[in-house]
Specification:
With 279 residues, the protein is α+β, with helices and mostly antiparallel strands. The chain contains nine helices and ten strands. The protein has three domains: 81 residues, Winged helix-like DNA-binding domain superfamily/Winged helix DNA-binding domain (Arc Repressor Mutant, subunit A); 96 residues, 3-Layer(aba) Sandwich (D-Maltodextrin-Binding Protein, domain 2), CATH 3.40.190; 88 residues, D-Maltodextrin-Binding Protein, domain 2 (3-Layer(aba) Sandwich). A five-stranded mixed beta sheet has the order 4-3-5-10-6. Strands 8-7-9 form a three-stranded antiparallel beta sheet. Strands 1-2 form a two-stranded antiparallel sheet. Helix 1 crosses helix 4 and helix 5 crosses helix 9. The radius of gyration is 23 Å and the shape is flat.
């Protein structure tokens, strides 16, 4: 299989439409159809079922889509890391979910900045579940992830901080004046259903709650009485004035970890990890 063929296949498998995929790739539709027919012929399997009305992935096609995405991401990461290795002064790109771990992140960056040989650190702010994709594509060298919400399977990681969770409420909510609450009290309290965060594939689970992708969205919805949410305590450090954070005593703890691809051989990355875990 050629990289070109994998890119063609992924485009069609994602769009499920040859015309749109051809336009996205910048090639003629007949050439795209011939390339994928040739790929199917060499593999001896049907990847896409075509009809006059729709295109559908077969079981074999679904498997190749997963594998092809991983191969293309690995190739992109290898290209980026190779180019970065040739830079006279290396840089580190750290992916962080916007609005999270602010105090911890500041301490890590300050400590690393005093380390002999420290190099510049670029922050790549992203939304829920994007950190892993950024690591796998090579766009980020390191990422802050939050267990159990983010998966670290296939990555190297070091735990930095374990903390409790809080429920974010409008200042006039019946529970807003409490020193602490239990999860059952949050569920039973009058108000809107919990917000729905995206799954790793970017889709939102079914349910009545509002769809959100970042803390700015959820804080505005909570302030308007349109959502409730339980978050790690550090997410409420710079909470807006019309909201309060109340500890949830029986919510599972959240652990912030620093994660990186296992194939990384970057000395600056290793130095930053050592500094962070020593804090």
């Amino acid at each position: 299989m050629e990289m070109r063929e994998l890119r063609y296949f992924v485009a069609v498998a994602e769009d499920l439409h040859f015309g749109r995929a051809a336009e996205r790739l910048g090639i003629a539709q007949p050439a795209l159809s011939r390339a994928l027919a040739g790929l199917e012929g060499r593999l001896g399997v049907t990847l896409l079922e075509r009809s006059s009305r729709r295109v559908r992935l077969t079981d074999a096609g679904a498997v190749l889509l997963t594998e092809a995405r991983a191969i293309l991401a690995a190739a992109e990461a290898a290209e980026r890391r190779t180019r970065e290795a040739a830079e006279p002064r290396p840089r580190i790109t750290l992916a962080v979910k916007a609005g999270t771990a602010g105090e911890l992140l500041a301490k890590v960056l300050d400590a690393y900045g005093t380390h002999p040989g420290a190099c510049p650190v670029d922050l790549l702010l992203c939304e829920a579940h994007e950190q892993r994709k950024l690591l796998c594509s090579g766009r980020a060298d390191l990422a802050l992830l939050h267990l159990p919400f983010d998966a670290v399977t296939g990555l190297d990681s070091e735990a930095l901080l374990t903390e409790g969770q809080v429920v974010i409420l409008p200042s006039g909510h019946p529970l807003a004046g409490r020193a602490a609450v239990r999860q059952s009290e949050v569920t039973a309290a009058p108000g809107p259903p919990p917000a729905r965060w995206p799954a790793p594939d970017g889709s939102h689970p079914e349910g009545p709650g509002a769809e959100v992708r970042n803390l700015t969205q959820i804080f505005q919805l909570v302030a308007l009485g349109r959502a409730t949410v339980v978050l790690p305590a550090s997410a409420a450090v710079d909470l807006r004035r019309d909201l309060v954070a109340v500890p949830v005593t029986d919510a599972p703890p959240v652990t912030t970890v620093l994660a990186w691809p296992p194939e990384s051989r970057s000395r600056p990355v290793a130095d930053l990890v050592r500094v962070a875990t020593a804090l």
